[in-house]
Structures are given as C-alpha cells and as structure tokens.
Amino acid sequence: MTQAASPKPAAPARKFIEEMKGSEWVKGVYAILNPQLGRTRAEKPYLRCLIGDRTGEVPGRLWSVDENFEMPREGFVLLEGETQTYQGEIQLIIKWVKQVEPSNDELRDLVPCSKRPPEEMFAELLGLLDTLEHPAMKALAKVYLADEILISAFKRAPAAKSVHHAYLGGLLEHTLNLLKLANAVCPLYPKINRDIVMMGLFLHDLGKTRELSYDKGFGYTDHGELIGHVVDGAIMLHDKAQLVMREHGVRLPPGALVVLQHIIISHHGQPDFGAAKVPMTPEAILVSMLDNVDAKTTIALSETRPDRPGDFDAGGNFTEKIWALETKLYKPDPLK
Amino acid sequence: MTQAASPKPAAPARKFIEEMKGSEWVKGVYAILNPQLGRTRAEKPYLRCLIGDRTGEVPGRLWSVDENFEMPREGFVLLEGETQTYQGEIQLIIKWVKQVEPSNDELRDLVPCSKRPPEEMFAELLGLLDTLEHPAMKALAKVYLADEILISAFKRAPAAKSVHHAYLGGLLEHTLNLLKLANAVCPLYPKINRDIVMMGLFLHDLGKTRELSYDKGFGYTDHGELIGHVVDGAIMLHDKAQLVMREHGVRLPPGALVVLQHIIISHHGQPDFGAAKVPMTPEAILVSMLDNVDAKTTIALSETRPDRPGDFDAGGNFTEKIWALETKLYKPDPLK
Amino acid sequence: MTQAASPKPAAPARKFIEEMKGSEWVKGVYAILNPQLGRTRAEKPYLRCLIGDRTGEVPGRLWSVDENFEMPREGFVLLEGETQTYQGEIQLIIKWVKQVEPSNDELRDLVPCSKRPPEEMFAELLGLLDTLEHPAMKALAKVYLADEILISAFKRAPAAKSVHHAYLGGLLEHTLNLLKLANAVCPLYPKINRDIVMMGLFLHDLGKTRELSYDKGFGYTDHGELIGHVVDGAIMLHDKAQLVMREHGVRLPPGALVVLQHIIISHHGQPDFGAAKVPMTPEAILVSMLDNVDAKTTIALSETRPDRPGDFDAGGNFTEKIWALETKLYKPDPLK
Amino acid sequence: MTQAASPKPAAPARKFIEEMKGSEWVKGVYAILNPQLGRTRAEKPYLRCLIGDRTGEVPGRLWSVDENFEMPREGFVLLEGETQTYQGEIQLIIKWVKQVEPSNDELRDLVPCSKRPPEEMFAELLGLLDTLEHPAMKALAKVYLADEILISAFKRAPAAKSVHHAYLGGLLEHTLNLLKLANAVCPLYPKINRDIVMMGLFLHDLGKTRELSYDKGFGYTDHGELIGHVVDGAIMLHDKAQLVMREHGVRLPPGALVVLQHIIISHHGQPDFGAAKVPMTPEAILVSMLDNVDAKTTIALSETRPDRPGDFDAGGNFTEKIWALETKLYKPDPLK
Amino acid sequence: MTQAASPKPAAPARKFIEEMKGSEWVKGVYAILNPQLGRTRAEKPYLRCLIGDRTGEVPGRLWSVDENFEMPREGFVLLEGETQTYQGEIQLIIKWVKQVEPSNDELRDLVPCSKRPPEEMFAELLGLLDTLEHPAMKALAKVYLADEILISAFKRAPAAKSVHHAYLGGLLEHTLNLLKLANAVCPLYPKINRDIVMMGLFLHDLGKTRELSYDKGFGYTDHGELIGHVVDGAIMLHDKAQLVMREHGVRLPPGALVVLQHIIISHHGQPDFGAAKVPMTPEAILVSMLDNVDAKTTIALSETRPDRPGDFDAGGNFTEKIWALETKLYKPDPLK
Amino acid sequence: MTQAASPKPAAPARKFIEEMKGSEWVKGVYAILNPQLGRTRAEKPYLRCLIGDRTGEVPGRLWSVDENFEMPREGFVLLEGETQTYQGEIQLIIKWVKQVEPSNDELRDLVPCSKRPPEEMFAELLGLLDTLEHPAMKALAKVYLADEILISAFKRAPAAKSVHHAYLGGLLEHTLNLLKLANAVCPLYPKINRDIVMMGLFLHDLGKTRELSYDKGFGYTDHGELIGHVVDGAIMLHDKAQLVMREHGVRLPPGALVVLQHIIISHHGQPDFGAAKVPMTPEAILVSMLDNVDAKTTIALSETRPDRPGDFDAGGNFTEKIWALETKLYKPDPLK
C-alpha cells in the first residue's frame, strides 16, 4: 500500500477538496457523508465514506478499525490523513477522525452556498417587493420582513434537498429569480394582477425554511416529511394575516388571504406533484408555471453547461437521465 | 292542457312531497332546484325546475311566463299549484311562485336531515371522546368542544355535497360512525395508539364546517373550493393547539401536534383523492382506511337496499354505475 | 307561431349579431354552423342551426321545410329572417336561406379575427427576428420569410381550432407573444442560446398553416388529422434548410438543423400531449414551457376577465370546468 | 484471517441464529438462502450465502472452494462452522456444508411460524364459523372443513411470500383476524348480510394453499404464477358447492354460489391489484376493504413497532420506503 | 298529426325494416328496444322506442297512451302501424302493440345473425381442429365437442354485446377467424407450439356462452357480470379436463391443463382489459395478440368500409370516434 | 495469483468466445465493452471490462495497470491473454491490450449478425415487393430500391439497440418477417388494401438506418435520439415521393402519400410508445398490430426456447422479468 511509503509528513493543513493533489498531508474539519463499515476480503473491517466541503467531495478510507473505534455519524469531523492519486482521481486515506460541531466560520467552508452573497440578493429582492402597489400587499410584505427568525432562515435555506438550488442561499436565489421573471413577464399580460403574482412568488416556498434542515448536509425535518412546506406556508400566512390587522391596522381585502393561501397550496400544479389544490386563478396558474420555468431551465443549464466544465462528465453528447426532467439531455450548443 | 280541466280548487295546503297524489292543490314553502327557462315548440318560454323538500323532489312547470316574470333563483320559494299524475309519476303545475327566505321552522321541513336527532348522536360522541386516556388528548378535545360556533356547525353540517351522508347532521353521523368503528377495531391491534386514532377521526373532517354551505341546498363555499377542508382542518388544529397550553396549561407532547395534523391532511389516502401527504403512521393509515370503509359501505348499502324501496328503481338486478364506487352494484341479497 | 303575427317587414338589412335586437328584419350573408333537421312534436321537419358572424352567434330556426328544401351545409349563407327576443335572448326565425361563397370583403365580417391588424403584428415580429445574431439563423429566417405563400398563410391562420387564439391572425399573435416573452426571459439565463430559442419559437407552430382549415369556420384538414403540425413543421424545416445553402451559400452549423427540428417535434412537452420526442435540450425545454405559459395564461385571463364582460356568464364566482386547464376558475380579482 | 487464530473448537452444537455470539463453533441443520459463488480479489472462488432459521439470518462464507466442491441449492443444509463478530455484527465462517432434507421436527426450528399455535387459532376460527346462521352457509362451511388435505394446508400455509403474515400459520392467522374484524364491524351496518361477509372472508384466500410453496422458504408454485389463488379459489368453490348438495342434501340458494365466487375473484379490489372483477355487492366491497385494513395495519405496525426492537433499525425517525404501502413510515408514537 | 290524414289502410303485412318505405301499413312481430314514456309539450304521455328486426332499426312512436296502456318491456312485440318518411328517414307510427314470445322461425327474422350459415362455419372449424396433432389435445377437443348443450350455444352466441361480431353466430365466426389466422401465422414461428395456440383459441371465449344472453337483444347475464367469461372458461376447462381422463383414458401432460387455463384467463392481455393474469407463455402472448388483430381489424373495416355503404354516414372523410379503437378513422382508401 | 502458475504459453491464437476453454493463450481482435478502472482492496487500480465477439462475451481483467496505461474506449481492441476457468465459468486475464479499428473481415467476426445471409433475405423481400399491384406503389418501391446507400444500410442495420432483432441484418429480417406475416394475414380480410399494408411495412422502420449506429456495438446516433426513426421515416418518404413523379412520371394518387406517412408515424400504436399519431386507418392499425405480433412473439420464443439452450439460464421454470413484455415468462412447453 502506497501510504506505507509516504515519508514526508510535513505540516498537515486544511485544504479545500478542489485544491487537493496526491501525496499531501491534510488536517482539518470536513463534512462526512454516508459513513459505512466495509470489510476487506480478509474480513477486516474498515471505514468507507465521502469527505467533503463546499468545493466538492472525495472518497475516504480508514483502514485501522478495531473494536474501540467510534464510528462517526453523518455530519462534521476533524480528521488527519493523506491524499492519494491514481489516474487523476483523488482519495483520502484517513489516519484518525473525530466527530465535531463546526463553528459558524468553519461551516461557511463546509456547506455549498450560492455564488452571490445573500445580502446582495436580499437587497435586490427588497427592491422588487418595493414595487408592490396595493397598501394591503405592502403591509403584508412588511409583516413578513419584520419576522427576523424567518428572514434569517430565508436568507440561509437551500431551495431543495438536491436537484436545483440545493445550496445555502438557494431558496433566496430561487425566489429572487422568480420575482425577476415575473417582473419581466407580467407587463405582457395587462389583465394579470401583478401584486398578487409578486406576493404569491415571495411566499410560495417560505414553508421550506421549516421543511428542510440544512445545518449539516441537507435533509427533510420530521415536520417537513409529515406536513410539508406547502401546507406549512399556508399556516404561516394564516398567522401573518392576523398580524397585518393587529400591527398595521390594514385589513386584507376580502378574498385576498384565501387567494394567496390558494397560490401557496397549489403552486406544485398537480396533486401528484404535491399540490393540495390545482391552481384555479390566473395568478395561481402563472405562479405555478413560472416556478416550473425557473426550476427546469436552471437544472437543464447546469447539467449541460456547468460552471466547472468536466465535472462528472462521462463523455458523449448526452447526460445521464435526469430524474427531475424525466429525460437525458443533449449537451452541445450547435451555434457555439 | 290538462290543468285547464281541473275543477276543484279546494283549500290549497302545504303537503310533503312524499305525500303528494294527483289532482291536488298545494300551497307552501318549498326548495327550488335548477330553475331554467325552457321554450315550447311554439317558442313560448316556460319555467322548468325541481320542487323539493326533505322528503323528496318532483318536476315543476310554470307555463305562463311573460317578460315581467321574475325568474326564481335556486333556494326557497312560496308557491301555489296543482299536482298531476301520469303512469304513477307526479309533477307540479305551478300557478305562481315567489322567492322567500324560510324561517328556521320551515327550514327543518325543507332540507334533508339525519334520521337520528343530532343531540342524541352528539351525546353518544361525547361518551366516546370521554374514553380518551392521555391528558393532552383530553385537553385538546375540551378545547374543540368549547368552541360553540364550531360545535353548532358540526352538529348541523352535512358530510358531503352529495353521495354519502349528504344531509343536515351527516357530518356528525359520519364522525360518530367512525368513532364507533374505531372503538370496535382498535382492540384487535394492541400496538395501535387508540387515543391518536380516536382524536384523528374526531378532527379529520371538521374543516367541512367551513368548506360546505348548507343553508339552502348543499354546495361548496369559495373558501372550500380554493383551500378545502383538508388544509383548513390543519389550520384549525394549529389554532386549537395554542389554546390547549394557554387555557389548560397542558403541553401537547412533542410530535403530537404534527402527527394529528398529518392525519388530517393525509386522510384522503392519495394525492389524487385530495390528500396533501400520503398517510405515514400506522394511525394515519388506519384513519384513512376506516373513513373509506364507512363511506363505501354506507353508499353501497343505501344504493342496493334503500330505506324507501322502489325509489328510482329502474328494475333489473343491477343499479346504474355509481361514480363514487366506480362500478354498478348487484342488488339482490342471495340469502334473503 | 309568433312570426305570423309580425306586421312590420321594413327594409331588411345586414346587421352584426352583437347589434341584433328583437323584432327586426335582417337580410345578409352569415356563417351557418351545425345545420340539422329537427322534427316538431307533430313530426314536422324544421331546420335548426347557429347563425354567426365575427361578433357572435344566435340560434336560428326555419319552420317551413318541405321535401324540396335544400339543406345548407356548414359554411356561409345568404338569408332573410326576423329576430325574436324572450327574456333577453335573441334568436333568428329564418324565412329563406341559400348557400353562398362570400367575397373577401364579406369574409372579413364573418370570421373572428385578431384585434390588432396582422400587418402591424408582423412588423413587430420582423423587428424581433432582426435581433438574431448568428448568420446561419439570419439566413434561415430569410428563407422562411421569402416563402410568400407560407407567410401569407402565417398572417391569416388561427393558432387553434378552438380554445386559445382561435381567430384569424391568432397564429401570428401567439407567435409574436412568444417571441416577446422569450425576449424578456432569456436575459435572466445567460447560458441559454437566445438565437435557438427565438428561431425555435418562430418555427414551432408553422405546420399549423397546413393543419388547420380556416376559410369557413375553423377545422382540421385531413392532412392535419393524419400527419399534424408537429411532424409537418419538421418536414418544412427539412426543405428550408436545403434552401439556406442553395440560396444563401450559408451552411447551417452541424447540429443546428437537428436541434431546431427537435424543438419543433418536442414542443408539446409530452407524448400524451402530442410530442414526438420529449424536449432534450435547455432551449427545447424553455420553448415548450413558454408555449405553455402563453397558452394557459391567455386562456385563464380570457375566461375570467373577458373583454366583453357578461358574455356567457352563468353567475357565481367560478367558471365552468375549462377542459384545457382541467379545472374551473375563480373569477374575482381580490384587489380590485 | 482471524479464523486461523481461533484455538478452542469445543463441542460444536446447534444454536439458534438469535443466540449466536462471536467465536463459537456451531453445527446443525439450517436454511440456506441465495447461495452464490463469489470470487476474491485473487480470483479464488468462495461461497457467499445467508444462513437462517426461524429466529433470523446471518451472512455465511466458505473460503475453501475447489473444483470438487458441490454447490448447495437454496433449501436446507447440515453445516459446521465458527461465528465471528465485528462491531456487533455476526457472520458464520463455514467449514463444510452438505445439502439435507430436514425432518419435520427440524423444520419447525427452521421456518418462521406464527406466534400462536395453529390449533388454538383454528379452534377460535371454528367458533366464529359456528355463528353462521343460514343453513346453506353452515353446510358449505362443513364441506370445506371436512376436506382434511385442504384444512391441513390451511393451518400451515403462510398468507404471503413476503410482506405480511409471511410465516407458517400466517394464512390461518390472517383469516382469523379478518373474521374477528368482521365480527366487530358487521353490527354497525345492520343491512349487511353477515353470513356472506363471514363466509366470503373464510374462503377469500384459500386458493393460497395451492399458490404458495412453503416447504423450504416461501415461493410461488408454477400453478400459483400462471393461475393464482384468486381464480383457483373460485374453482375450488365450484367443486365444493356440488358437494353441498350431494353430501348434505342442501341446495345453495340461487345466487349464493355466484355471489361468493364473485367475492373471491374480486377481493383484491381493482384489476391492477389482481382482481378479476371489481367488487359489485356491499358484502364484496366490505370483504375487500377489511382485507386491506388488516394487511396494511399489520404491515405498518410491524415495521414501526416490531416485537424485537432494534432489528434492522437504521436509526432515524423514518423507516425505509415500504413498497406495499408506497411510502416510508414515521416510527415514533408521540404519546409514548 | 299527420297520421290522422292517412286514408289507405290496405292490407297490413310483415315487412323487413330495410324494405320499409313511407306511407305503408305494416303488421307483424318485431323487436322493441328502449321503450320509454315520453311526454308531449302539452304533457300528454306517448311511447317512444326503437322497432327492429335483423335488417335494421327505425324509431317508433305511439301517441294514444292512456292510463290503461300496458307499457311493453324490451323484447318482442306484435304491432300494427304506418310508416312515415321525411327527408329520406323512415319512422313507424304505431297504432297498437302487444308483448309476445316469438316462435323460433320468427326469431330468425328478428335478431341479427352472421352472414355465413353457422353449420358451414362449424364444419370448417371442425376441419381445423382435426389438424391438432397431440393425442391429449385431440381428446380434449372431443370432450368439448361432445357437450351438445355447449356446442349448440357456441354456434348461436354472439361474440359480444356490441362492437364486434355482435350477432347470432358471431362467437363461432370470431373463433373460426382466429383459428384460420393462427393456421396462417404459426408456420412463420417454428418454435411456437401450434396445438396449444389452436386449442387455446378454440377455448378462449367459450365462457361467453354463459356470459351473454342473446334470446332477445344481447345483454350480460348476472352470472356474466359477476363472474365473467374469463374465469368461467377456466372453470369449464377444469371440468372438461376431468372428463378427458374419465372418458378417454388419456392423461393431459403435466402442465397442459394449467397452461391452457392460463391462456383463457390471460387472453385479454392486461388487467385493465379484464385479464386475471398477464400472458406468460409464448402461446398465451400470441393468442392474446391474434384476438386483438381480429377484433380491431374487423371493427376498423366495418366502420370505414361497411357492407351497406351510406348507413349512418354523416359525410366527411372521418368517422365519429370509435370507442373500442380510441380514435376516429379516416375512411378513404387512397388507391381506390 | 493463479496466472503466475500457468506454464504453457503455447502459440496464442484468435479464438471465438464460445470456443474458449480454461488455461489457453489467446491473441486477436475483440470487442471491448464497458471498460472501467477498478481498484483492488489494496487500492491498486486494474482494468475491468467485457470482452466479446459475435459468439458471446466473457469478463476480462488486466491487473498490471500503472500511470502510463492507456485506458481503452468502448469499441475494438487487439489483445493477448490467458483464459481461466472456475466452476465452468470462463474469464480472460489480459496481458496487454491496444485499441484498433478492425477490418471489414474482422468486423464480421466481432458483431452478432442474422443467421440467414442478408442477400438471401433481401431476394425474398424483393419477391414479396414484386406482388404489389398498384402502379404507383410499384414505382415508389423502385425509387426506394434504387437508393443504394439506403439499401446497403437496410441490409446491414439491426432492428433495435437491444431486445429484438438486435444484430446486423436484423432490420431486414424483421421487415421480411412482417411482409410474410402480412402476406399470410391479408387474404383473411378482403377489404383491407394489401398494397398499402405491404408498402407500409416495407417503409415503417427504414428511419432506423439513420437512428442506430452499428459499426461498433449498437447505439443510437444523436440524430436518432433527437429526431427518431418515426419522424425520419416520414421525411424520407417526403423526399422519395417527389422522386416518383420526377423519375417515373407516375403521380401518387391523392391521399396515398399522406396515408403512408401516417402509417410510418403511427406504427408504434400509442403516443407513450413513440407514435406521433395513433393509427387512424384499417391499414395503419393492421401494420401497427403485426409489428407488435412479430416483435413480441420473437422475444418470447428466444427468451424461453433459445437456440443455444443453457445460455444464462438461472434454472427454474420462469425467466427473469423481461422488460419489453412487462412480465417474466414460463419456459416449459407442456406438450414436449
């Protein structure tokens, strides 16, 4: 085994996954995914896992596992080890590993996050919400924006466990995209009520702040599995609508609460996709379709024209089948 | 026209539909359904409608319609007319008709209602709720029962717009049936949590008090169409759970609120049947299946072995296709 | 029969359907739809039909039908008759009727057409095609625009037999809408190839110029039923691509022809909706979704907020079930 | 390899799987499942399999496989070997292995069976059949009970190859559960014919005695795959009904045979779930739904609240997706 | 009413429907379908029905209905009346009507039947069964052919209640067609077992002799609705297989009975189309597909190229949607 | 490792896979499939792949992989190695390997092909096309047969990437089968237009010559994935129809082109199976069903009664689930 031969322990240091080369000593806090006890042919147990940070993932192995070994859980670990490389692929031979709770600073390096800073995106979103015209909509937006816990989560939550916008800040980025999309599309349909569309898009996924856990890797909370962001968003609006009157003395016009709740519970479009009702107003239909446009276009572009070309590319002109799109994709742009 | 020949106007009186014979004068308040302007071959307009009360319906016709005629809306009317009979079928030739709002006493005669008195059924239901064992469940039941507006609507609401338990008191009757069913079934499954099942059944359809309008005929409210009793029941529980702590100083055990909300939003079993989540606990699965057992058994029995035999019976051994069961039914009981 | 009593024949004149009142004599060329031989109770035959022009339709009846009567076919007729009104509904009692071929001037009054003049919309579309950047796309657009027969049909054809944009000029209006939509949306997705999207949208429905007949009423041609605009559009592009090289000396980049054909045959999104392939490039996916956005938003708005309010409005807050949307719609705008 | 180091061969003995600890010598008859020839990295062949008895299963390995080795088939084997343990998981290093046919006594230890003794359950079932009231139903029950081969198989057969009641005696246990369920539920629906429901439930799965093989592991017979218990149960009833007249001089009332056959062939509820007809009588509908209630409740409880807690528990609050329920399950009981 | 004016009663006589012209007196036994009590605008009751024989159907009306009138049931009637014609359509104004049971001779004129005489088709079928090679298949065929009641029904039964081969002798004609089809197709697949295919086709629909009633009009028996020809054919084979041994001393090869039963219960191809199992042998698959080929080709040809051209032809190049084919059909043969 | 022990290197030679025994040296050109870099327990990389020719496939391993090793791509290689055998299974221990482009002679040995020589099948097909009667059909056949590039591809292409007729010459064999099937079946349906059926079958899959690549292994071309043989066949006919007039002075009868194009685009029967239109003429329906009969019968027979018995046979009476048939198959022929 090659690690036996490695003579130069040097000073091990924290390295980002994407910077790792072969035969280096590394030490630092990383995410650990899917830790499992493997067994060699000689029936010796060993640890198999993925070691990651916000820049990528590599396979990890720890060979010297005995009965006292404390198996790490999915989450974060402090570890020391040596990188190996064969045929251009890196893996990490772990020497020792210990479960830790990372500091906030460390976390920023460990979990993938949006390219644009959340605050910058949030400022742009505030600008778009500022274009709401109806006083009741303005008041309702204020009530939501005044909920600091919610807004803090909104800036940080991913938009999905995987598939699209699955990174810290992803929910904000997806919501902002949709508001910009509506801003561009609404003028083409003068009879659409732009305020309802904009507010509906702002609210449609806010339940995800409770549905997803994103402190270590992304997953669903029990609450998310059993209730879901669709119903939860409607309950949240039920509470906020009461605050609008209490705090701003503004009464939501009759029908406005029910129409916005309807947009939230119908935005998945069909019962089979998780909608509790099918969209039954022009605004609900448009919200549901714009959500689809942004999600699918974003997935299709990131799968065919990724930022870091070459990643996971198995060659050929087609991707693997992408489940969210129910098809594989043709990658070349014929005019480029 | 035959009505021209009828010589004996006698004193017209209120008669229940099921008591009507041919050639009688009637006068009174009735429900009017599906009023439409027909047109004779000679292009003369006339009023076609159904005239009904809690005992049944007959076709109605008013021939002398001119431009001043005020078309009645679906609802209730005071009318005078004469019954006719051909081949055993009754219809009502209306002389004049006027829209009215019935008094509460009149209403009782006009809208179908459950055979058992609501108060009697409600007492039986209280007895079953009294068997709840966990203090938090007891406290939650108390909070619901203390909501007078809700309970008053619960005693009065139908369980559906049509199909099963579509009469005043039907929601209470259906809920009571289910509690009795669970009471009989739970002992066979010792690991099931009976309190959760009983409470889940009590709550599962309470949103229907807001979903259905039942003052004149039965229909869906706008709120019912756009939000629905499934999501609305979950919102109602969100509010009630806060009262449990505030008013009884009892804390719902962690998970109890979410599990009960889950039962409410999953009790239709599948997304295509209106469930916002599929049932994911043993209790949610049992609630959903018992609801089905009661609804389908009740429909099948009332279609094949009705209380008033002969009603609408087209002869033959099979009923028409019954949409809720997706099949026609074979009527004979081979052992009778 | 009431028409016997009408004393004032006056000078009958061409009247638009929307202007008709009761008890007027009319004479002129109209569209006739669904002509059928009815039979009175006394077994006398009569003609039932709809009489229409671009402003609407009314029921028509011709009572004096004998064995020499020449039954009109669906299409256009010259007729004379008298209007009747009951309860605000107009119908036309036809005195005589004769099949005719309308002149082009007459046609303009008979068939519904887009509100904006076709030439004005076409000029706007030319402006958008002018923004294409790749020389091969520019050359391909030129080849299509040089096909006078095609372009003349393109300006005139409806976008559908019914449901959305079902009027002369509807295909052009729908295509223009989509180009404007893409113009607004593409900048939000920098990696999308705008030229492919714009060209794909321009071409996606051109097969409809052969699929639909629209000279008298709108219908499908045999060719349209058996082949359809989806495959036909791909065949048309196959021919045009050969002209690009032959006439402009420009070679379509490898892959460009196949990717554009793919967009045409996949733009219905799913096999069940008529797609011969599912969309497999980001541009094909976006084209298919934008087509959906425009079609559904247009339908939803015209059903809930029609230009001529009151038309066909049965009252209540919900429309009838709209098949293209698989739901009924809630009509009120709660902020208005 | 660690087994080389094990010094203490002691007297090997038969041990139940659930009692095995590390470093013990065992010898005895076990079930062998899924025997396969693996190959080490050094391309040496070895035997991989599961070794089981009624108390559980462990992985088995036999390393010294040469060309004379006789590969065992799925079934039963006599073997000798040594247990090993790592991280709490047991596996069996087999020294030698030989196919055997177990004696009946040995079988009892090898195949999982119901917790309650079959004779005890059968006695309870007889008691319930004794409550049948109609003489023809009583006679029919007698004919079935007099078929010793059938009843012997009925007491022994599992109710399914896997998923629910998949153990010896499972068919009897499932049938008994259903009779008890019907006994509790029927009184709530006075119009239901209890005799038909009880008899239908007794017969509904009897075809499984021919559909499943259960002498060694559970599987489908060829007959079961090609015909199935649904049709086979109907054929069996066809034969038995002839015996009722011949042996008891009792004539089944007209319609009773066909209605019971209908219950058998319809009890899966829908064609997609294996029903040859959909249930078309109230009793057939109730039988089909009660079957569902017992199957799904039993699965849900055994997956979330197993008798031997900890078995296969991967941690977390949710189970894996359970295919028979089309969902994963939430395990905690929030009131416990 | 025009019938009052008809002066020439002449000698009324039995006429076939297809020979009827206007203004003739007819008297004779006819089939009566869908008898209903209509009501004129003046609320006078009258009888509406279809009057038919094997050559076609015409609408019938009887105007003078009073309270003593005995409403005929669907079946056969002796009647007298006068034909009327308008615009080429015939109808029958009935003077009086009386329910009768037709003699066998009369029946032959009343119910549609196959063009070829049943005996001629049956002889051809015997010739094809004679080509069976395996002695067990020969013996099985003999047992079926010796069942005189079955064979008499087989020669007479229709193949369906409607849609394809819905006439007396239709089951025989469809079965014969399939044997001829298999005779032509099997030689192309040398590995197929021709005996199994031929025997499977002979047996596949024999259960229809019990499923359909065809004495007066065609319908399903209760037995047919609740059990169906698919399961019933398997039960019949169960009985016949026992006779093969008892009467011919020939033992069906192991597997032959189950494979033929499998063909019978799987020949509808999919559960949704009524198959109790999907076809799982090459012969079962071929039987199921040939059944489909004959049924669909026969329907498509009779709808587009009927024997009596012009029947029900609404004009245009397309038929109405044909439900059995889930599409409308294009009628022209472009090479004719 | 055992290969170290093999003493007799002899003269290595090309051997067909089906002839390989253990402990032989082989050298020659083979197909290589699914080449992957594995990693031993000791983390040493090695090459895993399948090595094949037209007679079968065996697993291949190359152990001595270092950083200079050039990984072969899927395609063809020259290699030298030694066979090993354990328990009757062969594998190839590769010593060295080099990517090559095989000569045409070599290719014939490497890729599976039809049993009958293509030229012999093609001659039979020409004979069947010669039976076309209509001059326009004869002319159209001539135009296709004169396209040498197309016909050369037609003789060589497989009919599918896998599943049925997946070998060189498979498209020709499948097409020939279908023409023979139609030749046998059409006489049973006198009203069918045999010329249209025969021509439709000849053309229906010709688009596969462009859809599939078959030079090295079988796959889809990009063109095939994005457009498909269904639409491509229709475009090809569009071009050929123009040649019929130009080169033969024969005009296709009106409707003939559209009906044949319709057959091509509808031959998959349903949108979900890839049809761009459902079949709407009797001939289109028959073509689609015969295609199905040949494909499914061929699959079912080759899976249950293979030419080389024992291949991949896992024992038992049932095959694995066959996806194209959506079921597993029962293998025994009960009369053999």
Outline the structure in words.
The first copy, chain A, has helices at residues 2-5, 104-110, 118-129, 135-145, 148-156, 170-185, 194-203, 208-211, 222-226, 228-248, 256-266, 282-304; strands at 25-39, 45-53, 56-62, 75-86, 89-99, 212-213, 219-220. Chain A has 336 residues and is an alpha+beta fold. In chain A, strand 2 (45-53) and strand 3 form a beta hairpin. In chain A, helix 4 packs across helix 10 and helix 10 runs antiparallel to helix 11. Chain A is elongated and about 70 Å long.
Ordered list of secondary-structure elements with their pairings:
The structure is a homohexamer of 336-residue chains.
Chain A: H1 2-5, E1 25-39, E2 45-53, E3 56-62, E4 75-86, E5 89-99, H2 104-110, H3 118-129, H4 135-145, H5 148-156, H6 170-185, H7 194-203, H8 208-211, E6 212-213, E7 219-220, H9 222-226, H10 228-248, H11 256-266, H12 282-304
Parallel strand pairs in A: 3-5
Antiparallel strand pairs in A: 1-2, 1-4, 2-3, 4-5, 6-7
Helix pairs in contact in A: 3-6, 4-10, 6-7, 6-12, 7-11, 7-12, 10-11, 11-12
The helix content of chain A, as a percent range, equals: 25-40%
How is the main sheet of chain A built?
5 strands, mixed, barrel
Q: Write out the strand line-up for the largest beta sheet of chain A, numbering strands in chain order.
A: 1-2-3-5-4
> How much of the polypeptide of chain A forms β-strand, as a percent range?
15-25%
Query: What is the overall number of helices of chain A?
Result: 12
Give the strand tally of chain A: 7
The secondary-structure element order of chain A is HEEEEEHHHHHHHEEHHHH
Mean pLDDT of chain A: 86
Shape of chain A: elongated
Low-confidence runs of at least 5 consecutive residues of chain A: 1-7, 309-314
Structural class of chain A: alpha+beta
Oligomer: homohexamer
Specify which chain pair forms the largest interface: A-C, 53 and 53 residues
End-to-end C-alpha gap of chain A:
46 Å
Radius of gyration of chain A: 24 Å
